[in-house]
Amino acid sequence: MTDDPFGNLRDWGPVLELLDELASSGKLAECQRGLIRILRYKGNWRLREEVLKRIGEIPSPSDGLAGQVLTILSDDNIYYEARVLASNALIELLKNSQSSLPQEFMLEIRKVIEKLSESPQPPFLDNAIKKLDSEIGPPRAVQN
């Protein structure tokens, strides 16, 4: 299987069907490059939301996939519901890859949480941020 089987994202019906099929068969992990492309695609909110809802099932997410989810969470220009989905997806991705994501990425998550916590957020986004913060735990000392 190709790592981006989704084709034209403007024709979103077949893309949603393929996402459902891949998730049902446990093959989403094989298509991470394509999932990143969907998350970057601003032309269809349904695709983005569907990917955010499903990627928590991926057993070994790539750094790129996790990074794109963090980008969505931190982007003030993206609507709140997608950012809440991104926070929830990030929690699931972290559970699935606790030891494999680099320490630098964990520090980036901490920076995003701190940045978002500095300004008032709607309660549902604030709750998602607090949940993410509690899931990643306190900052760890960087080993030399």
Give a verbal description of the structure.
This protein is mainly alpha-helical and 144 residues long. The chain has one domain (12-136). Helix content is 62%, strand content 0%. It is built from 7 helices and no strands. It has helices at 12-24, 32-40, 45-54, 63-74, 80-96, 103-117, 123-136. Helix 2 runs parallel beside helix 4. The termini are far apart. The mean pLDDT is 90.
Which descriptors would you attach to this protein?
62% helix; 144 residues; mainly alpha
Short description:
The protein has 144 residues and is mostly helical. The protein has helices spanning 12-24, 32-40, 45-54, 63-74, 80-96, 103-117, 123-136. Helix 2 (32-40) crosses helix 3.
Beta strands, count: 0
User: What number of domains?
Assistant: 1
What is the SS-derived class?
mainly alpha
The description of the largest β-sheet is:
none
**Strand-residue fraction?**
under 5%
Q: From N to C, what is the helix and strand string?
A: HHHHHHH
CA(first)-CA(last) distance: 41 Å
Low-confidence stretches: none
Number of helices: 7
Mean pLDDT: 90
Secondary structure: helix percent: 55-70%
Q: How many whole angstroms does the radius of gyration measure?
A: 15 Å
- Overall shape: it is globular
